[in-house]
Amino acid sequence: xxxxxPLITAEDIVxxxxxxxxxxxxxxxxxxxxxxxxxxISVLAKKVSxxxxxxAKTLRLANSSQYGLQVKATTIQQAITYLGFQTTRSLxxxxxxxxxxxxxxxxxxxxxxxxxxxxxxxxxxKVLARHIRFNQDYAFTAGLLHNIGRLVLVSSFPEHYAQxxxxxxxxxxxxxxxxxxxxxxxxxxxxxxxxxHWNFSDTIRLAIANYSxxxxxxxxxxxxxxxVANAIVCALDLAQAVDDMVPRVSPVAWAALGLxxxxxxxxxxxxxxxxxxxxxxxxx
Amino acid sequence: xxxxxxxxxxxxxxxxxxxxxxxxxxxxxxxxxGAVLTENMLSLMPRHGIEMLSxxxxxxxxxxxxxxxxxxxxxxxxxxxxxxxxxxxxxxxxLLLSYASHxxxxxxxxx
Lengths: 284, 111
Prior knowledge:
The complex is a heterodimer.
Chain A: H1 10-17, H2 25-32, H3 41-49, H4 52-62, H5 76-83, H6 85-97, H7 111-131, H8 136-145, H9 148-156, H10 158-171, H11 175-182, H12 187-197, H13 202-210, H14 221-235, H15 251-257, H16 261-282
Chain B: E1 4-8, E2 22-23, E3 29-31, H1 39-44, E4 52-56, H2 62-79, H3 91-105
Antiparallel strand pairs in B: 1-4, 2-3
Helix pairs in contact in B: 2-3
């Protein structure tokens, strides 16, 4: 193993955030407003349409059969009319975030597998949410972002992260444990720091903060949902990462969803189908 | 067991078999599971905004099937390598393993 790098502190993470790529201003506005109902939709729709790449990606996602549109949406305004503002907002932010981070900055970090895992978790969380009548847009967005702290660490401290990856491979431990050993901080902390920096809503920030320990007091239901979705994605091998490992599943989170085997088998299938479609729309 | 693959519409030919029930936006059944797709059905898909379909893969020989199941078994064991079935505090992970196994290997009553 190469020489030990100095440990990173929470302050270092925050200091590094300013150097991260920024999201389009309109996307920040959308992320910040996720808990608000009174947003001027037409103004936002117009602003999004100025970004052609973002618009194209959003519409590709909106027109995937996941959303079952009878008529193709060809503009953001149409997508809002057909799918509603909440859903369209989650599509726009997903489309923006999946393209925001530069790839290949850290040797050994598989960006593609990272996004496959994130998109699969988003798909699974949405399917789970539908089964238990929870807000599907929150579930999708939180699923997509639950691991975003990894990208923060990879982008700000690539050398450290390369060592953490090596440590993980050597000890076959969880990534969280490797991060804590080598960096002194982990992707959950980094994710929360980014959530504050980018003004994610409290709902999403709480889910990022607690998905790996959904049993702590005040973790929130969304954290439990993402916890289970994350484990399912590993169990179904959707990210196709060679060393993937199913984390210990929290009995509290599992019980909170309260689903039985028949339902799980059905939603495994749905998750696989949805995942295929969303991957085609977001990652191609 | 049936294996399935998600294919874009362009790659789907008449005669292929739908591996899943196909629903429209309102959850109405368009086609049942096992439907043999025809030229006519395929031409109607774009109207429903459908771009991909889940298609039954051609049946495998017994040897291929055994090899596939074995590879799933090995992979599941690898993915769940940190799970200790004897740990009374970790029953939940065991449940997920059992469901995932039933799903992948098509064993158990429900699948």
